Amino acid sequence: MTHLPSRLAKVSARDVNVHYGEKHALKHVDLDIRANEVTALIGPSGCGKSTFLRCINRMNDQIENAHVSGALTLDGQDIYDKGIDVVQLRARVGMVFQKPNPFPKSIFDNVAYGPRIHGLARDQAELDEIVMTSLEKAGLLTEVRDRLDEPGTGLSGGQQQRLCIARAIAVSPELILMDEPCSALDPIATAKVEELIDELRENYTIVIVTHSMQQAARVSQRTAFFHLGELVEVADTEQIFTNPQHPLTQGYITGRFG
Amino acid sequence: MTEHTVKSFDDELTHLSNTISRMGGLAEAQLAGALQALANRDSDLAVRIAASDAQVDVLEQDVQHFTVRLLALRQPVAADLRHIVAALKIASELERIADYAANVAKRSLVLNQQPAVKPVGAVINLGRLVQTILKDIMDAYVEQDVAKAIGVWNRDEEVDDLYTGLFRELITYMMEDPRTITACTHLMFMAKNIERIGDHATNIAETLHFLVVGTPLKGARPKGPSVEAQ
């Protein structure tokens, strides 16, 4: 039985299905993402977690034979409404990818890019302010303050990923989607990004897809476990990792399959 | 030690140590209260001490819950792992210590129904010694001071000696005047409980050694002659 979308949730999914051509990739997913929390999506490869993530900012629109059905709302507003401006939606819903992908531009211009195209700054001073604040929030400012005009691609992997987070923050999103943001990083850079995620949730809502169950345990407050396109279990992260209710969740997180 | 990159983990570890310290403080207060109730034949205090044991039990539950959470969510290793495992073990030692203190308080209620007997003073002396040992081991925990922990570990011999002497004294009293047998038997159990508190303090010393150094405290603990063996 499908319930009504929750108005309390930042993002609310009800009976969301995704087909890639014949393939039923996501099956009847009901899931609420709470505001100012980190929600981790875990599950074996092909379980649908990234597919679900990409529904939230309509990245699946890019995929030719993808078809999304069901109700998906952001603050009660239908994300798939015909009147929705997808560019505006993606300003509200930022995204950070698996591999850091800075533009081949300076560090400053990487962060300034979003505010410029969305016209968020009236003059240079305001733009400077946005860039500096975003770099600060991303925990990168002290490391790059003296070389803002150097190319973003010259930074280390971990710094590049934090630059991408700064770039996402610069357009003041409400929700940040992260698709395995640490899988290309070493443990120290990973710890820095995890600390950053912990700090960011005060002001943002975060959904993170991760292959690392340990990372899900460390960074999230809620965890959703997907398997073969179905949402098997969603609960407080502590509950999932100390006393999961579904045998499939138990099997996956204890390394018995997947 | 330097801070973790993820600051909230530091906060959680600090919270854990603080909870253990609070448990230690409560256990110390329970023992002090039980001895005071015994010395002053204060039944009201004894009742309060017996009732307060529940507070320590609640804290032990908190520690248990919190350590399971930390083990599951933080995947601790090395010093962090030892810190968390040690907290779990020390919490159960402190819970036992508080139980023994509560038992001393309960027996003092029965004792107050009887005429006073002289060996009470010796039981209180044993209690005072164990009090200082308990205080020292909790200080050593807060300061992560291995030398102090080893000091506590060695002092258990004093407790054993005092207990053995007390055991003989009580038997002598009972043989001389069978009317004191009820009171003296309760005192004997109280002394045994206090001696057990000392043993749990040495267990904490061993755990603290493992926590700080990473290896078990080796060698046999110096032991006085066992009364049970006589």
UniProtKB/TrEMBL annotation, chain A:
Its domain of life reads Bacteria
Transport as a keyword of this entry, yes or no, is: yes
Q: Which Gene Ontology MF annotations are present? A: ATP binding; ATP hydrolysis activity; phosphate transmembrane transporter activity
Q: Which CDD domains match?
A: ABC_PstB_phosphate_transporter
Question: Which SMART domains is this protein grouped with?
Answer: AAA (SM00382)
Q: Which NCBIfam families does the entry link to?
A: 3a0107s01c2 (TIGR00972)
What protein name does the entry list? Phosphate ABC transporter ATP-binding protein
UniProtKB/TrEMBL annotation, chain B:
Q: Which UniProt keywords apply?
A: Cytoplasm, Phosphate transport, Transport
Q: Which cell locations does it reside in?
A: Cytoplasm
Q: Has UniProt tagged this entry with the keyword Phosphoprotein?
A: no
GO cellular-component term (any): cytoplasm
The record's section on NCBIfam families has: phoU_full
Q: Which family does it belong to?
A: Belongs to the PhoU family.
Q: How does it assemble?
A: Homodimer.
Q: What protein name does the entry list?
A: Phosphate-specific transport system accessory protein PhoU
Which source organism?
Magnetospirillum moscoviense
